[in-house]
Specification:
homodimer; 208 residues; mainly alpha; DNA-binding
Chain lengths: 208, 208
DNA sequence: ATAATATGTGAACACTGTTCACAATTTGAA
DNA sequence: TTCAAATTGTGAACAGTGTTCACATATTAT
């Protein structure tokens, strides 16, 4: 049964309207202006009606986060995987920063919101999840492994692909947070400096 | 006139009580449980009374942020400045991460809250502020400069001490954010991995 | 003693997320 | 077609939030 009933289609459409309204509010007025009443106002529903489609505001915010994460994946997808490993990792980081710069509200939202982690994540889980072609972290993870395979990144005891991926992610994330929220007005040519920082970090990870 | 009037002493004490209550609430129940009414309840005032001492909740939060920043400065101060530059920078980063790990609520608060930056910051401003011995960023900045002077860090066109300090700060900040809020349950030996990442980054910044 | 200032309060306002009894609609089956 | 069941939307209410304001009290300075 691939085709859905009218009711399910309407339900899906309403869910979509709610999320679209939420995303618009965030983009226009910022995340702290997001309220159930404002969402309801925009889509001509009563505030209580939202509870027929989402369990809570938190559920709506989670859905918005997932959508933002999907868009981040799209932004990272433009980096061609045919690039040599080192260049690929640098461009991946730059794409991450571009996303944060062009969608500051959404990025701040992602960066701020508490995402509960599944309590136990094993290395096997991560290996398997790495197959997901669109997941942002998986993209980075595969890029790191290509760098290792090409001999450009140097594995050390207790410091393998996962640790490298985490560290590079942390560098990019920290840059994005500081630039969008805090130190963005410093007299720095951020794109140039960021590119150099990525290059230095990857160089350091490749030294014997 | 160094000695203050009784009224000023009471005023100062009340301000201190308010901030202490706010910090306690954050430490005990988390930043989202911080409300003026709960602060007032704890110090036996009416909510309206807080407005005789602070302009708004935001003003209270700003003061808490400053206090948290001061404590961060204390945590960084334990790293002896007599260490060789590279080791000093690594230990400074580790101290930053230790602070975030041991005061997750306060760190999340600092990391989350929007601090408005003075609109224009010049290099001269930063050079002067670098004299402040206790400011966390200044500490890092001076450590970077020691590394440069010792020939351990390699200055490039458009990538000097300020850019290096910003990048190292970003790496540490990103690690702290991800570990305390997001990926802390990954199967990684974080202290060891973080140390290696700092070392790699600094190595990379020293390569010709 | 008196006028000026500072400090604290209760009540109210406009918000927020959430719940709930109730009505209207849509659905699936007899 | 009829009828019961499930779904969807609503207004009202509740407890909570930050904030304001007229009013009373207490402290200071003249």
């Amino acid at each position: 049964m691939k085709t859905r009933t009218p009711r399910e289609r309407r339900q899906e459409r309403t869910r979509h309207d709610i999320l679209t309204a939420a995303i618009d509010i965030i983009a226009e007025d910022g995340a702290d202006q997001l309220s159930l009443r404002e969402i309801a106002r925009r889509i001509d529903y009563s505030p209580a009606a939202l509870y027929r489609h989402f369990d809570s505001k938190e559920a709506i915010v989670d859905a918005v986060c997932n959508e933002a994460n999907r868009r981040l994946g799209d932004s990272l997808a433009v980096v061609p995987e045919t690039l040599p490993p080192v260049e690929y990792l640098i461009e991946l980081g730059m794409a991450y920063l571009r996303f944060a710069d062009e969608n500051p509200q959404h990025f701040h939202f992602i960066a701020t919101w508490q995402i509960p982690m599944p309590p136990d994540v094993t290395r096997e889980d991560i290996e398997q999840a790495a197959d997901n072609p669109d997941d942002p972290f998986s993209r980075l993870y595969r890029g790191i492994q290509r760098g290792i395979d090409a001999g450009k990144l140097h594995v050390r005891p207790g410091y393998g692909a996962l640790e490298m991926a985490f560290s590079v992610w942390a560098l990019a994330h920290g840059m994005a947070v500081l630039q969008t929220q805090r130190l963005g007005r410093m007299p720095i040519d951020f794109p140039a400096a960021n590119r150099q920082a990525f290059a230095d970090f990857i160089t350091g990870m490749g030294s014997a």
